[in-house]
Amino acid sequence: MSETANKTADAPIMRIEGLRKSFGGVTATDDVSVEIHTGETHAIIGPNGAGKTTLISQLSGLLPPDAGRVTFRGRDITRLPAHQRAHVGLARSFQITSVFMEMTVLDNVALAVQARSGHSFHFWSKARTLSHLREPAYAKLEQVSLAGRAHTRASALSHGERRQLEVAMALGTEPHMLLLDEPMAGMGTEESARMIEMLRGMQGTTMLLVEHDMDAVFALADRISVLVYGRLIATGTPDEIRGNEEVIKAYLGEGDAES
């Protein structure tokens, strides 16, 4: 567990209370309540169809809940639209913008830095020459181990590097909390390992991680919450989740729990 998470474990940055969302007769999130602590990496796991994407979409403002409440840094953001959540410090990695393939890696992140000041992504013009945008953008690229690709067109990046770029763009908005929806999706073994090391190096940044890769989850998470059929069945440390009989039966399986 990260030292920062230990020090601030009594100070939740986000409170999710009774969150519920249904689509027709299907309840995707069913009375979900959990606290995210400042400085921790909190993972959401569960089988396909458990409601993970629906939950993170409600937290990022893309889906309004049918019931419940989301409080972020003491503010009720339950009905706040997605673009306003970015301005209060909540960033969803791939939702910041689509990567602009014809722009350089550095220009993409500088664009996110510019957006943080309230300007639209469309107002680019001379911004790519401004040091107050490029310097923090380069710092974010160093943070995600992409500084060596700063002047490369985004179209030339590998899939894994593009996911790193998306994280750098999210960081460019100086968020208080990152929502990461399956950052290892579609990656090979080497790319996944690089992403895990990159995220491990970001300890102290509050992150909510939705991920199917259990190796990544147990390597990164301070705490884990388990969703099954839209309901939260357990929250705890990785060791507590590994040993939770209900979680083993519903999701992990005996082999995964012992590995």
Find the structural class using helix and strand composition: alpha/beta
The total strand number stands at: 10
> According to CATH, what is the topology of the largest domain?
Rossmann fold
Mean pLDDT: 86
Major sheet description? 6 strands, mixed
Q: Enumerate the spans where pLDDT stays under 50 for 5 or more consecutive residues.
A: 4-9, 254-259
Describe this structure in words.
This protein has a 6-stranded mixed beta sheet with strand order 6-7-8-3-9-10, sandwiched between helices. It is 37% helix and 24% strand. It has 2 domains: 1-95 and 179-259, Rossmann fold (3-Layer(aba) Sandwich); 97-172, no CATH class. α4 packs across α5 (131-143). The longest helix has 14 residues, at 159-172. With 259 residues, it is an alpha/beta fold.
Brief digest:
With 259 residues, the chain is of the alpha/beta class. The chain has helices spanning 3-7, 52-60, 82-87, 105-116, 131-143, 159-172, 189-200, 214-220, 238-242, 245-258; strands at residues 12-23, 26-37, 41-45, 67-72, 75-76, 90-92, 177-181, 207-210, 223-228, 231-236.
Secondary-structure blueprint of this entry?
Layout: H1 3-7, E1 12-23, E2 26-37, E3 41-45, H2 52-60, E4 67-72, E5 75-76, H3 82-87, E6 90-92, H4 105-116, H5 131-143, H6 159-172, E7 177-181, H7 189-200, E8 207-210, H8 214-220, E9 223-228, E10 231-236, H9 238-242, H10 245-258
Parallel strand pairs: 3-8, 3-9, 6-7, 7-8
Antiparallel strand pairs: 1-2, 1-4, 4-5, 9-10
Helix pairs in contact: 4-5, 4-6, 5-6, 6-7
